Structures are given as C-alpha cells and as structure tokens.
Amino acid sequence: MTMACQAVVGSDYELVLVNDGSRDETWSLIQSLAAQTPQVVGVNLARNHGHQLAVTAGLSLTRGERVLIIDADLQDPPELLAAMMARMDEGFDVVFGRRRTRANETRFKLWSAALFYRFLRAVSNVEIPADTGDFRLVSRRIVERLKAMPEHDRFLRGMVAWLGGRQSELLYDRDARLAGETGYTLRKMVRLAMDALVGFSNAPLRLASLLALLGVGFAIAMIAYVFLAFFLSPIRAPGYTSLALLVILFSTAQLTCLAILGEYVGRAYMQTKGRPLFLIEEVVSLQVLEAHKVRSFPTITALSQREA
Fold it and tell me: Which of 106, 135, 200, 219 could form a disulfide with 124 if both were Cys (CB 3.0 to 4.6 A apart)?
C-alpha cells in the first residue's frame, strides 16, 4: 500500500490502519510499523465492532483531501490508486471499484452476491451499484458527509450512493486473498444484507402489507367455499384438514409480518439509545498527537482495516 501511495503522491500521504479487535498479532505489527513510518497511523478499537464501523472509525481520523478505502487482505489491488486519482481529477466525487472477476470465490458466494445486488437495486430507494464493495476513492466532501450520518447499522456503499455527487466506476479483477482466512462468515454476510435491505428500502414492510391482503383474500374465498359446501354438498365432512391448513397459513403470515416489523423497530430502538458508533482504545503514530489535529495533508489518505 505504501508503494502505491508513494508512486502517486510521493511522501505526502497517510496510511490509517484500523485494528478491529483482532486477537492475533495484528496490533503489535501496526504499532511496529507506525513507530518506523511517519505516514502510518494505527487505530486500535476497544472491541470488535464489525467491518462497517471499523471503516467508519478510520474515516473519522483521516485528514486527506482524498481517501482510499481498502481492506487489508489486498484482494482489491492498491495499484489502482493512480487510475482512481486520474479519474477524480476529472471532477468526480467518488470513484468506486467494480469487480469484473473474483478469483477463488465459491459458486455459492458469486451466485448469492449477484442475486442480492440485483434484488437490492430492484427494491431500494437508492441506485446502489452492483458487484461493488467498499473499495473506493472518495473526496473530503463525501467523507465529511459520511461522518455526519449517525446511523448505527451501516451499509457504507449504499450510504455513499445516497450522498450523490458525481460518481464513476472503475472495472478491475479482484485477486485471491493473500494470507489468512476471511472474517466474513455467512452470518455476517446475511447481517450486512439485512442492513442494506432494511436501511435502503421499505419493501419488506410492503411485503407484510401484501401478505395481509393475500390472507384477507384467501379468507374470503374460504368463507365462500364453506358456505357453498354447507348448502350444496350432501355430505357434512368435519373439515379438520382445511381448518389446520388455515391456522398454519395465517400463523405463518402473522409471524412473518411480526419478524419484519421487529427488524425495523429493533434498529430504531438501537439508534435511539445514542451510544457511540465505536470506541477507540489507542491511536499510535510517530508524529506528535497534537500535530494530528492541526496539520493537513492536501492530497490523499489511504485507509485500511482488518477484522478479527
């Protein structure tokens, strides 16, 4: 990452490394690097906050006029920084990387990701680019606007899209992970998908209304059927099967509606608590901490993060 920055702006950059509560030697390595390199700023979070809040913590400490968001696994090539900078020189506020290919990804992940992004674009109130991650170069204006958004359940790529401005894509081939294993489990990916869906669409609430209407229509049809069967059929069957099916159908619809409402109410409840988005345990840099408050790099800040 340092080589990519030096190739573009020389020594006029900073590299903010966020340790998201990892239990390995990540923080020790960041401390060692910060002690040797003036441009490196290490940020240690008090606990694991998750990818989106870890990136938010890093963004809160950046000072550059342009900020590159990139994961520490380097699946997204930092060498694209030069092309992103050139694109931003044309007047764009955001230059995001769009994956053309993804090396060493399972078919399930590729299929599910493609389906999710296309479904999200179909139901979202904001046009969120498909096949993208958080790998992007953003201007200082976008960073400041992101910092002013206090929502706890964050989906940064959607938030950046919501902010508008001039945005441009840059196609690239995503490499395989250099080392280690991903911290993004299936559970975390589902959680991120829920954050995106609930945060940028009210389609689930409309689904609850649709289920209610379908239930009412089905109930009316069943009432008509019962009356017709009572007066026209010579056989009086007890109808236990029909009764059981009705109970199961309406119970499932009600539980589905309650689950959807619970997602929205739960997020509103967490937001109203007013807790800080993240807790920073320690910031290390070769420069004096006070200098961090007054000195401003005019060119670029590179941000990297690593989860536990």
Answer: 200
**Measuring CA to CA, which residue among 31, 35, 56 is closest to residue 44?**
31
Rounded to the nearest 10 degrees, how much is the dihedral formed by the CA atoms of 104, 106, 110, 111? 160
pLDDT of residue 236: 56
Specify whether the backbone of 66 is left (phi greater than 0), alpha (psi in -120 to 50) or beta.
beta
Exposure of 168 by Cβ count < 10 A (0-12 exposed, 13-18 middle, 19+ buried)? Answer: middle
From residue 250, how far is each of 217, 239, 264 by CA, in Å?
12, 17, 22
Which strand ranges, in their side-by-side order, compose the sheet holding 40-45?
167-174, 94-102, 132-139, 66-71, 300-307, 13-20, 40-45, 280-285
Q: Highest mean pLDDT range out of 22-31, 84-93, 185-194, 247-256?
A: 84-93
**What tokens were used for 105?**
């990804």
pTM tops 0.70, yes or no: yes
| Contact (CB, 8 A) for 15 and 40 | yes
Please check whether residue 84 is in contact with residue 57, taking contact to mean a CB–CB distance below 8 angstroms.
no
Q: What angle do CA 89, 93, 95 make, to 5 degrees?
A: 80
What average pLDDT does this structure show over 140-164? 91
Cα 41 → chain centroid: 24
Please write the tens of the pLDDT for every residue from 199-244: 777 777 777 777 777 777 777 777 777 677 667 766 555 666 667 6
Residue 94 vs residues 134, 168, 243: alpha-carbon distances, Å? 11, 6, 57
